[in-house]
Amino acid sequence: MTDARTTFSSPLDLQSVRADFPILSRELAGGLPLVYLDSANSSQKPRQVVQAIEDHYLKHNANVARAMHQLGAEATAAYEGARDKVAAFIGAPDRNEIVFTKNISEALNLVAHTVGGSLKPGDEVVISEMEHHSNIVPWQMVCERTGATLKWFGVTDDGRLDLSNVDELINERTKIVSLTWVSNALGTINPIKELAAKAHAVGALMVVDAAQAVPQLPVNVAELGADLVGFTGHKVVGPTGVGVLWGRYDLLASLPPFLGGGEMIEVVRMTGSTYAPPPARFEAGTPPIAQAVGLGAAVDYLSGIGMDKIAAHEHAIVEYALEGLKTVPGLTILGPTEAKDHGGAISFELDGVHPHDVATVLDTRGIAVRAGHHCARPVHERFGVQSSTRASFYLYTTPEEIEALVDGLGFVRSFFKVA
Amino acid sequence: MQLDSLYQEIILDHYRSPHHTGLADPYDVEVHHVNPSCGDEVTLRVELDGDTVTGITHESVGCSISQAATSVMSDLVIGKPVAEGMATYEKFLELMQGRGNVEPDEEVLEDGVAFAGVAQFPARVKCALLGWSAWRDATARALAQNESQDAAQQEGVSNA
Fold first, then answer.
1. A-interface mutation test, from B15, B35, B63, B66, most A Cβ less than 10 A away
2. In a domain, B48, yes or no
3. Active-site residue identified among A375, A385, A411, A415
4. pLDDT single digits (tens) B24-51
5. Is the minimum CB–CB distance between B119 and chain A shorter than 8 Å?
6. pLDDT of A179-225, one tens digit each?
7. Out of A354, A360, A415, whose CB is closest to B121?
8. Does the active-site annotation cover A143?
9. In chain A, which residue's Cα lies nearest the Cα of B61?
10. Considering only CB atoms, which chain B residues are within 8 Å of A413?
11. How far is A342 from chain B (nearest CA, A)?
């Protein structure tokens, strides 16, 4: 580690970033400091986000769009203001292209249900073996319902999308290509722009699961070339309960509604209803108002620091962690072992110790990691393992925390007598 | 300290060399149980003679706690009447759900008392219960299956 330590350099002032996240300085049972390496699961929240939510509830709370009073106007302005902030954050050309959902699973289900609803037998949907279950199961469901066929990209031994048969997979029968931008299990960053061009060349739509990308990469959906992009609030230092679906406006405007109810309608008669234009068409019922306000504060926070700096920090930390993990005997990294095109999550196997036991032993040292299949069982099957341990990083992760992980893994090996 | 109370030597011994592994023939019922949240899996076969558990064998992938618990469960239940096995399960469940406030009964639980520390780790309780849930399911099915076979046989006799 000594060599790597001397080369670690981040554009972020970690001390001042960490001061914004009170939870990072709390003590765990036994007086242990927290080493939080589970941000791909859920990120921690800065004071600014929590305060925005508190301020909303304590001073401006009312329902949106339908309350004819001052508080209603303030709540509406705050909610719609969050839409503007999110649109700017991801480079959406039009604020009406931002649909608030409850999380990215709902966003992907919305897409599968509305876009996928017009699929016919013979049509094909293309996903990949490295998808999160939320970008597999909705497509399996819609293919079952419509008779369309689900196809998928394999994964190479070094954890990249296997593009050797791309022109076979994306063909004239393909209607939808839906891929993760950054793998939550392997950390792989996929070449979305190139694949979107391939999809468009055959007239298919490109859907992107950006749950792990939006937190750590500068995103411009207009330049990405995709048609629909989803992400979730709680992974971008925002609250739980709010997700985002971005879609090209003309595409959104051509889609049928998803959930029916209040606020998504134009005129309701007992004989039938007409629907509001996007985004309201897809936001039935009272939306996650305070959560959207919190998300607005979250993207402001990230923009204030600078997504380019966050991406550079993430890259440096991943490189440092890969170096460190490679020094642990008996440890096998799943997926890419080089920092190039590697997002902020690393999954690994430790010879002779089950991941749950790894996680429990690390937990007793204050180190929080995830163990299991990380909602990506197929990619674990691809690598012939039942589960793995995953460490994931964010803008507040320090090199000292990586060292604590590496030391902790040495302790795990000696505790289970595999050292 | 806490770690040693979770990973007692008995548990690690069972984990390294689990008892009754390798799926045996003959058997009455085979079940496959999974813990969807973590991916642990167990395939378990049970054989009954009347109301007595004559055989349990299993193959599993999972953590030390789940593998050791399945091993200990097999030791505890094989050769016992089903009702006694179920009563032992109740005792074990009480221990697991006791958050460390239940004094384990060594007379009943034998090596199972080593799992007392698991109750302090709420995320791991489901690991200790996976093998038990597979055994209970397999046994319930075996009882129902044997009962209906007996009924069919009796019907065969009365028809003859």
1. B63
2. yes
3. A375
4. 999 999 999 998 877 789 999 999 999 9
5. no
6. 999 999 999 999 999 999 999 999 999 999 999 999 999 999 999 99
7. A360
8. no
9. A386
10. none
11. 25
B41 CB within 8 Å of a chain A CB: yes
The answer to whether A387 faces chain B, any CB pair under 8 Å, is: yes
* Number of domains forming the structure of chain B: 1
Pick from A86, A97, A89: nearest CA to A248: A97
| Phi, psi (rounded to 5 degrees) for A140 | -60, -40
Percent of chain A whose predicted confidence (pLDDT) is above 90: 90
Q: Please state the domain extents for chain A.
A: 2-38+306-415, 50-304
Domain A50-304 is found in CATH 3.10.180.10: no
What's the farthest any 2 CA atoms get from each other in chain A?
A: 74
B153 domain-assigned:
no
Cβ–Cβ below 8 Å for B124 and A356? yes
Assess whether pLDDT exceeds 70 at residue B157. Answer: no
The total number of residues written for chain B in this structure: 160
Instruction: Work out the mean pLDDT of chain A and round it to a whole number.
Output: 95
> If one looks up domain A2-38+306-415 in CATH, what number appears?
3.90.1150.10
In a domain, B158, yes or no: no
ipTM above 0.85, yes or no: no
A30 inside 8 A of chain B by CB: yes
Site from B3, B16, B125 to mutate, A interface, most A CB atoms within 10 angstroms: B3
Range of A26-30, A325-329, B99-103 with top mean pLDDT: A325-329
Task: Tell me whether residue B155 is in a domain.
Answer: no
The answer to whether B17 contacts chain A (CB < 8 Å) is no
Chain B residues within 8 A of A387 when measuring between CB atoms: 38-39
Residue B26 domain boundaries:
2-145
- Is B3 an 8 Å CB contact of chain A? yes
CATH number at residue B95: 3.90.1010.10
